[in-house]
Amino acid sequence: MLVSSVWRERSRWWFSAGLLAGGLTSAVVAVALGLLVRPVVRPVPAAILVAAVAVLVGLNELGVLRLRLPQNGRQVPESIGDDGPRYGALHFGFEMGTGVRTYMTTGLPHVLVLAVALCATWPQGLAAGLAFGAGRAAMVLARYAHRDDGHWDEQLTAYDRTLRLLLTLACCGVLAVVLPAATGTG
Questions:
Q1: Residue 60: is it exposed, middle or buried by C-beta count within 10 angstroms (0-12/13-18/19+)?
Q2: pLDDT one-digit tens code per residue, 80-111
Q3: Angle 60-58-113 (CA atoms, 0-180°, nearest 5)?
Q4: pLDDT at 1 over 50
Q5: Of 3, 10, 31, 182, whose CA is between 20 and 30 Å from 80?
Q6: CB pairs under 8 A, 24+ apart, for 162-169?
Q7: What is the sign of the dihedral through the CA atoms of 174, 100, 154 and 17?
């Protein structure tokens, strides 16, 4: 659970801004690293690799496979909350927004990072980073908007499998459009 300072008054907006900034930062790093690899890995093999990883991660999301995907499986330190309601929330959001300092409950961001690194232009990569941060922020704001009696958490647990299916299908749908365009075959 997130530290309580993130939920208070304006802190959630600072936290959300941190999530967006973290997503953008990860996208910049992914595109920059991808530019080093792209001269070696041509567009069609890159798209095939992204599609193969997407299939494996999708099967993992649906419970067909059990993959142990890389993650930095630890919590963001609660001491960040000591930095105050604004900076602490911004800092905490940034760390979660990068997606590299926290537990990942889904493997779909791995597909996103690979696709951004191997196939995205700068504008596409930045849009993907913003979308990642915005997706995380949407969860925070949706949770905040619900009453605080555990109902939201219960509903999230009850619909976890359906949400995983929908998000996996959405990811595959985006890749079905993006990958052919990235290879010049679409």
A1: buried
A2: 767 777 888 888 889 888 887 777 788 999 99
A3: 105
A4: no
A5: 31
A6: 164/61, 164/62, 164/106, 165/61, 165/62, 167/61, 167/106, 167/108, 168/57, 168/58, 168/61, 168/62, 168/108
A7: negative
